[in-house]
Amino acid sequence: MKVTVVGAGAVGASCAEYIAIKNFASEVVVLDIKEGFAEGKAMDLMQTASLNGFDTKITGVTNDYSKTAGSDVAIITSGIPRKPGMTREELIGINAGIVKTVSSNLIEHSPNVILIVVSNPMDTMTYLVHKTTDLPKNRIIGMGGALDSARFKYRLAEALEAPISDVDGMVIGGHSDTGMVPLTAHATRNSIKVSEFLSEDRLAQVSEDTKVGGATLTKLLGTSAWYAPGAAVSSMVQAIACDQKKMFPCSAFLEGEYGLNDICIGVPVLLGKNGIEKIVKIDLADAEKAKMKESAEGVRKTNSLLAL
Ligand SMILES: NC(=O)c1ccc[n+]([C@@H]2O[C@H](COP(=O)([O-])OP(=O)(O)OC[C@H]3O[C@@H](n4cnc5c(N)ncnc54)[C@H](O)[C@@H]3O)[C@@H](O)[C@H]2O)c1
Ligand SMILES: O=C(O)C[C@H](O)C(=O)O
Known about the structure:
Layout (H helix, E strand, L loop, with lengths): L1 E5 L3 H13 L4 E6 L4 H10 L2 H4 L4 E6 L10 E4 L15 H18 L4 E4 L4 H11 L7 E3 L2 H16 L6 E2 L2 E3 L6 E3 L5 E2 L2 E2 L6 H12 L1 H9 L5 H15 L4 E10 L5 E12 L2 E5 L6 H18 L5
Parallel strand pairs: 1-2, 1-4, 2-3, 4-5, 5-6
Antiparallel strand pairs: 7-10, 8-9, 10-11, 12-13, 13-14
Helix pairs in contact: 1-9, 4-5, 5-10, 6-7
Bound molecules: nicotinamide-adenine-dinucleotide and (2S)-2-hydroxybutanedioic acid.
(2S)-2-hydroxybutanedioic acid (LMR) binds next to helix 8.
Protein backbone atom coordinates (compact mmCIF):
# COMPACT_ATOMS: atom_id res chain seq x y z
CA MET A 1 0.00 0.00 0.00
CA LYS A 2 1.37 3.37 -1.09
CA VAL A 3 0.02 6.44 0.67
CA THR A 4 0.64 10.08 -0.25
CA VAL A 5 0.19 12.90 2.23
CA VAL A 6 -0.03 16.36 0.68
CA GLY A 7 1.00 19.04 3.16
CA ALA A 8 3.94 18.36 5.46
CA GLY A 9 2.66 20.75 8.11
CA ALA A 10 1.35 19.87 11.55
CA VAL A 11 -1.48 17.58 10.41
CA GLY A 12 0.31 16.06 7.40
CA ALA A 13 3.33 15.09 9.49
CA SER A 14 1.09 13.65 12.21
CA CYS A 15 -0.77 11.55 9.58
CA ALA A 16 2.55 10.25 8.19
CA GLU A 17 3.83 9.47 11.69
CA TYR A 18 0.75 7.52 12.84
CA ILE A 19 0.47 5.64 9.53
CA ALA A 20 4.13 4.62 9.79
CA ILE A 21 3.90 3.63 13.45
CA LYS A 22 0.85 1.43 12.72
CA ASN A 23 3.06 -0.37 10.17
CA PHE A 24 0.40 -1.33 7.58
CA ALA A 25 1.71 0.74 4.62
CA SER A 26 4.86 -0.08 2.66
CA GLU A 27 5.43 3.50 1.55
CA VAL A 28 4.39 7.01 2.55
CA VAL A 29 5.25 9.95 0.28
CA VAL A 30 4.94 13.38 1.87
CA LEU A 31 4.64 16.32 -0.54
CA ASP A 32 4.74 20.03 0.25
CA ILE A 33 5.10 23.18 -1.81
CA LYS A 34 7.67 24.67 0.60
CA GLU A 35 11.19 23.83 -0.69
CA GLY A 36 12.86 21.06 1.33
CA PHE A 37 10.17 21.01 4.03
CA ALA A 38 8.66 17.59 3.22
CA GLU A 39 12.15 16.12 2.71
CA GLY A 40 13.11 17.35 6.19
CA LYS A 41 9.94 16.01 7.85
CA ALA A 42 10.36 12.64 6.09
CA MET A 43 14.01 12.34 7.16
CA ASP A 44 13.18 13.25 10.77
CA LEU A 45 10.36 10.68 10.81
CA MET A 46 12.57 7.98 9.23
CA GLN A 47 15.05 8.52 12.03
CA THR A 48 12.32 7.38 14.47
CA ALA A 49 11.87 4.06 12.58
CA SER A 50 14.40 2.02 14.57
CA LEU A 51 13.13 3.58 17.81
CA ASN A 52 9.43 3.06 17.08
CA GLY A 53 9.87 -0.26 15.28
CA PHE A 54 8.32 0.37 11.87
CA ASP A 55 9.38 -0.59 8.34
CA THR A 56 7.28 1.90 6.38
CA LYS A 57 9.48 3.90 4.01
CA ILE A 58 8.76 7.62 4.26
CA THR A 59 10.05 9.99 1.58
CA GLY A 60 9.55 13.71 1.14
CA VAL A 61 9.24 15.72 -2.10
CA THR A 62 8.85 19.36 -3.04
CA ASN A 63 5.80 19.62 -5.30
CA ASP A 64 6.91 16.70 -7.54
CA TYR A 65 3.75 14.69 -8.18
CA SER A 66 5.57 12.11 -10.32
CA LYS A 67 6.86 10.68 -7.01
CA THR A 68 3.27 10.14 -5.83
CA ALA A 69 2.39 7.99 -8.89
CA GLY A 70 0.50 4.79 -8.15
CA SER A 71 -0.73 5.89 -4.72
CA ASP A 72 -3.59 3.79 -3.35
CA VAL A 73 -4.67 6.47 -0.88
CA ALA A 74 -3.85 10.19 -0.78
CA ILE A 75 -4.58 12.57 2.06
CA ILE A 76 -5.04 16.29 1.39
CA THR A 77 -3.91 18.38 4.36
CA SER A 78 -2.47 21.28 2.33
CA GLY A 79 -3.87 24.71 3.16
CA ILE A 80 -3.99 27.21 5.96
CA PRO A 81 -5.26 26.39 9.44
CA ARG A 82 -7.41 28.80 11.45
CA LYS A 83 -6.14 31.13 14.18
CA PRO A 84 -7.93 31.74 17.50
CA GLY A 85 -11.25 33.53 16.99
CA MET A 86 -11.68 32.34 13.39
CA THR A 87 -14.17 29.82 12.04
CA ARG A 88 -13.14 27.03 9.66
CA GLU A 89 -15.42 28.56 7.01
CA GLU A 90 -13.20 31.67 6.83
CA LEU A 91 -10.42 29.52 5.29
CA ILE A 92 -12.38 28.84 2.09
CA GLY A 93 -10.86 31.69 0.03
CA ILE A 94 -7.30 30.31 0.15
CA ASN A 95 -7.94 26.61 0.67
CA ALA A 96 -10.42 26.05 -2.19
CA GLY A 97 -7.77 26.96 -4.80
CA ILE A 98 -5.17 24.74 -3.11
CA VAL A 99 -7.48 21.72 -2.78
CA LYS A 100 -8.65 21.99 -6.39
CA THR A 101 -5.10 22.05 -7.79
CA VAL A 102 -3.79 19.37 -5.43
CA SER A 103 -6.64 16.91 -6.10
CA SER A 104 -6.25 17.29 -9.86
CA ASN A 105 -2.46 16.71 -9.67
CA LEU A 106 -2.95 13.65 -7.45
CA ILE A 107 -5.51 12.05 -9.77
CA GLU A 108 -3.37 12.73 -12.85
CA HIS A 109 -0.59 10.59 -11.38
CA SER A 110 -2.76 8.06 -9.48
CA PRO A 111 -6.04 7.53 -11.37
CA ASN A 112 -7.17 4.76 -8.98
CA VAL A 113 -6.50 6.74 -5.82
CA ILE A 114 -8.87 7.04 -2.86
CA LEU A 115 -8.77 10.66 -1.62
CA ILE A 116 -9.17 11.67 2.01
CA VAL A 117 -9.86 15.39 2.35
CA VAL A 118 -8.75 17.06 5.57
CA SER A 119 -8.25 20.74 4.66
CA ASN A 120 -10.95 23.06 6.01
CA PRO A 121 -13.75 23.90 5.63
CA MET A 122 -13.64 20.14 5.15
CA ASP A 123 -17.23 19.29 4.05
CA THR A 124 -17.09 22.03 1.42
CA MET A 125 -13.58 21.01 0.30
CA THR A 126 -14.85 17.41 -0.09
CA TYR A 127 -17.80 18.69 -2.14
CA LEU A 128 -15.39 20.74 -4.26
CA VAL A 129 -13.40 17.59 -5.08
CA HIS A 130 -16.67 15.88 -6.12
CA LYS A 131 -17.61 18.75 -8.37
CA THR A 132 -14.21 19.26 -10.01
CA THR A 133 -12.93 15.70 -10.54
CA ASP A 134 -14.24 12.51 -12.16
CA LEU A 135 -13.55 10.27 -9.16
CA PRO A 136 -16.48 8.05 -8.17
CA LYS A 137 -18.15 9.06 -4.91
CA ASN A 138 -16.84 6.05 -2.97
CA ARG A 139 -13.29 7.32 -3.51
CA ILE A 140 -13.76 10.83 -2.07
CA ILE A 141 -13.92 10.84 1.72
CA GLY A 142 -13.90 13.80 4.10
CA MET A 143 -12.29 13.38 7.53
CA GLY A 144 -14.12 15.13 10.37
CA GLY A 145 -16.51 12.79 12.14
CA ALA A 146 -13.79 10.32 13.18
CA LEU A 147 -12.03 13.14 15.00
CA ASP A 148 -15.21 14.70 16.40
CA SER A 149 -16.32 11.28 17.69
CA ALA A 150 -12.95 10.78 19.43
CA ARG A 151 -13.43 14.16 21.11
CA PHE A 152 -17.01 13.20 22.04
CA LYS A 153 -15.74 10.02 23.71
CA TYR A 154 -13.08 12.02 25.54
CA ARG A 155 -15.73 14.42 26.90
CA LEU A 156 -18.13 11.57 27.75
CA ALA A 157 -15.41 9.71 29.67
CA GLU A 158 -14.57 12.92 31.53
CA ALA A 159 -18.23 13.44 32.54
CA LEU A 160 -18.69 9.77 33.48
CA GLU A 161 -15.33 9.62 35.27
CA ALA A 162 -14.82 6.43 33.24
CA PRO A 163 -11.96 5.08 31.16
CA ILE A 164 -12.38 6.07 27.50
CA SER A 165 -12.37 2.37 26.49
CA ASP A 166 -15.70 1.97 28.38
CA VAL A 167 -17.35 4.61 26.21
CA ASP A 168 -18.83 4.57 22.71
CA GLY A 169 -20.43 7.37 20.72
CA MET A 170 -20.57 9.05 17.37
CA VAL A 171 -20.80 12.57 15.92
CA ILE A 172 -22.44 13.13 12.53
CA GLY A 173 -23.28 16.31 10.60
CA GLY A 174 -21.04 19.10 9.36
CA HIS A 175 -17.51 19.52 10.75
CA SER A 176 -18.10 23.01 12.14
CA ASP A 177 -18.45 24.68 15.54
CA THR A 178 -22.24 24.79 15.23
CA GLY A 179 -22.98 22.01 12.73
CA MET A 180 -21.78 18.89 14.56
CA VAL A 181 -24.49 16.53 15.79
CA PRO A 182 -23.20 14.44 18.72
CA LEU A 183 -25.58 11.48 19.03
CA THR A 184 -25.99 11.69 22.80
CA ALA A 185 -29.13 9.49 22.83
CA HIS A 186 -27.14 6.65 21.20
CA ALA A 187 -23.94 7.00 23.30
CA THR A 188 -23.20 4.17 25.70
CA ARG A 189 -20.98 3.07 28.57
CA ASN A 190 -20.52 -0.72 28.35
CA SER A 191 -23.72 -0.99 26.26
CA ILE A 192 -25.77 1.06 28.73
CA LYS A 193 -27.10 4.41 27.53
CA VAL A 194 -25.08 7.24 29.06
CA SER A 195 -28.37 9.01 29.87
CA GLU A 196 -28.70 6.46 32.72
CA PHE A 197 -25.63 8.01 34.36
CA LEU A 198 -25.63 11.66 33.26
CA SER A 199 -28.26 14.38 33.66
CA GLU A 200 -29.71 16.12 30.61
CA ASP A 201 -27.77 19.27 31.51
CA ARG A 202 -24.45 17.41 31.83
CA LEU A 203 -25.05 15.68 28.48
CA ALA A 204 -25.84 19.03 26.87
CA GLN A 205 -22.51 20.32 28.23
CA VAL A 206 -20.68 17.27 26.79
CA SER A 207 -22.31 17.99 23.46
CA GLU A 208 -21.34 21.67 23.49
CA ASP A 209 -17.72 20.91 24.56
CA THR A 210 -17.49 18.40 21.70
CA LYS A 211 -18.76 20.84 19.08
CA VAL A 212 -16.22 23.51 20.04
CA GLY A 213 -13.44 20.92 20.46
CA GLY A 214 -11.39 22.31 17.56
CA ALA A 215 -11.94 25.95 18.60
CA THR A 216 -10.92 25.17 22.21
CA LEU A 217 -7.62 23.67 21.04
CA THR A 218 -7.03 26.49 18.55
CA LYS A 219 -7.36 28.99 21.41
CA LEU A 220 -4.88 27.05 23.54
CA LEU A 221 -2.36 26.29 20.77
CA GLY A 222 -2.57 29.47 18.65
CA THR A 223 -3.23 27.22 15.63
CA SER A 224 -5.43 24.18 15.13
CA ALA A 225 -4.82 20.66 16.46
CA TRP A 226 -2.78 17.89 14.82
CA TYR A 227 -2.30 14.78 17.01
CA ALA A 228 -5.93 13.61 17.11
CA PRO A 229 -6.53 14.65 13.46
CA GLY A 230 -3.48 12.59 12.38
CA ALA A 231 -4.60 9.62 14.48
CA ALA A 232 -8.13 9.82 13.04
CA VAL A 233 -6.83 9.88 9.45
CA SER A 234 -4.45 6.97 10.10
CA SER A 235 -7.31 4.82 11.46
CA MET A 236 -9.35 5.54 8.33
CA VAL A 237 -6.39 4.70 6.05
CA GLN A 238 -5.80 1.49 8.00
CA ALA A 239 -9.47 0.50 7.54
CA ILE A 240 -9.02 0.95 3.78
CA ALA A 241 -5.59 -0.73 3.61
CA CYS A 242 -6.71 -3.75 5.64
CA ASP A 243 -10.23 -3.85 4.11
CA GLN A 244 -11.70 -3.73 7.62
CA LYS A 245 -15.25 -2.53 6.70
CA LYS A 246 -14.98 -0.47 9.88
CA MET A 247 -17.59 2.18 10.67
CA PHE A 248 -16.58 5.83 10.86
CA PRO A 249 -18.66 8.96 10.43
CA CYS A 250 -17.15 10.56 7.28
CA SER A 251 -18.13 13.34 4.96
CA ALA A 252 -19.73 11.49 2.03
CA PHE A 253 -21.61 12.62 -1.06
CA LEU A 254 -25.30 12.02 -0.41
CA GLU A 255 -27.97 11.17 -2.95
CA GLY A 256 -31.10 10.92 -0.84
CA GLU A 257 -29.59 9.33 2.27
CA TYR A 258 -30.71 11.10 5.45
CA GLY A 259 -33.13 13.07 3.25
CA LEU A 260 -30.22 15.03 1.72
CA ASN A 261 -29.04 15.46 -1.84
CA ASP A 262 -26.02 17.01 -3.58
CA ILE A 263 -24.03 17.65 -0.40
CA CYS A 264 -21.02 16.18 1.42
CA ILE A 265 -21.68 15.90 5.15
CA GLY A 266 -20.78 13.56 8.02
CA VAL A 267 -22.75 10.28 8.09
CA PRO A 268 -21.77 6.79 9.27
CA VAL A 269 -20.02 4.80 6.53
CA LEU A 270 -18.14 1.51 6.25
CA LEU A 271 -14.54 1.93 5.06
CA GLY A 272 -12.83 -0.89 3.19
CA LYS A 273 -10.61 -1.50 0.17
CA ASN A 274 -12.98 0.44 -2.14
CA GLY A 275 -13.11 3.47 0.13
CA ILE A 276 -16.72 4.12 1.17
CA GLU A 277 -18.22 0.63 0.86
CA LYS A 278 -21.59 1.63 2.28
CA ILE A 279 -23.43 4.58 3.77
CA VAL A 280 -25.06 3.28 6.93
CA LYS A 281 -28.56 4.53 7.62
CA ILE A 282 -29.53 4.79 11.27
CA ASP A 283 -32.83 5.88 12.77
CA LEU A 284 -32.48 9.36 14.19
CA ALA A 285 -34.76 10.84 16.83
CA ASP A 286 -36.82 13.85 15.64
CA ALA A 287 -34.52 16.30 17.45
CA GLU A 288 -31.43 14.74 15.81
CA LYS A 289 -33.10 14.89 12.38
CA ALA A 290 -33.81 18.59 12.90
CA LYS A 291 -30.18 19.21 13.92
CA MET A 292 -28.94 17.33 10.87
CA LYS A 293 -31.18 19.44 8.61
CA GLU A 294 -29.89 22.65 10.19
CA SER A 295 -26.31 21.40 9.87
CA ALA A 296 -26.83 20.70 6.16
CA GLU A 297 -28.14 24.24 5.68
CA GLY A 298 -24.89 25.57 7.17
CA VAL A 299 -22.76 23.39 4.87
CA ARG A 300 -24.80 24.47 1.83
CA LYS A 301 -24.26 28.12 2.77
CA THR A 302 -20.47 27.55 2.69
CA ASN A 303 -20.73 25.49 -0.54
CA SER A 304 -22.48 28.45 -2.17
CA LEU A 305 -19.26 30.45 -1.79
CA LEU A 306 -17.42 28.07 -4.16
CA ALA A 307 -16.84 29.34 -7.67
CA LEU A 308 -18.07 26.16 -9.41
N1 LIG B 1 -10.76 17.95 8.89
C1 LIG B 1 -10.21 18.03 10.10
O1 LIG B 1 -10.67 17.40 11.05
C2 LIG B 1 -8.98 18.87 10.31
C3 LIG B 1 -8.20 18.73 11.47
C4 LIG B 1 -7.07 19.52 11.63
C5 LIG B 1 -6.72 20.44 10.63
N2 LIG B 1 -7.48 20.55 9.52
C6 LIG B 1 -7.11 21.44 8.43
O2 LIG B 1 -5.95 20.90 7.79
C7 LIG B 1 -5.24 21.95 7.15
C8 LIG B 1 -3.74 21.87 7.52
O3 LIG B 1 -3.56 22.19 8.88
P1 LIG B 1 -2.08 22.23 9.50
O4 LIG B 1 -2.23 22.53 10.93
O5 LIG B 1 -1.34 21.02 9.08
O6 LIG B 1 -1.47 23.50 8.74
P2 LIG B 1 0.09 23.80 8.48
O7 LIG B 1 0.17 25.24 8.12
O8 LIG B 1 0.88 23.30 9.61
O9 LIG B 1 0.42 22.91 7.20
C9 LIG B 1 -0.12 23.13 5.94
C10 LIG B 1 0.93 22.77 4.92
O10 LIG B 1 0.35 22.85 3.61
C11 LIG B 1 1.39 23.27 2.74
N3 LIG B 1 0.81 23.74 1.48
C12 LIG B 1 0.15 24.89 1.23
N4 LIG B 1 -0.20 24.94 -0.07
C13 LIG B 1 0.22 23.80 -0.65
C14 LIG B 1 0.12 23.26 -1.95
N5 LIG B 1 -0.48 23.91 -2.94
N6 LIG B 1 0.69 22.06 -2.19
C15 LIG B 1 1.32 21.37 -1.21
N7 LIG B 1 1.43 21.83 0.06
C16 LIG B 1 0.88 23.03 0.33
C17 LIG B 1 2.11 24.36 3.52
O11 LIG B 1 3.40 24.64 2.98
C18 LIG B 1 2.14 23.74 4.91
O12 LIG B 1 3.34 23.03 5.15
C19 LIG B 1 -5.95 23.24 7.57
O13 LIG B 1 -6.82 23.66 6.56
C20 LIG B 1 -6.71 22.84 8.81
O14 LIG B 1 -7.83 23.66 9.05
C21 LIG B 1 -8.60 19.78 9.34
O1 LIG C 1 -10.42 23.31 14.49
C1 LIG C 1 -9.89 23.40 13.39
O2 LIG C 1 -9.89 24.43 12.72
C2 LIG C 1 -9.11 22.21 12.85
C3 LIG C 1 -9.89 20.95 12.80
O3 LIG C 1 -11.03 21.06 12.01
C4 LIG C 1 -10.20 20.40 14.15
O4 LIG C 1 -11.36 20.12 14.44
O5 LIG C 1 -9.25 20.20 14.94
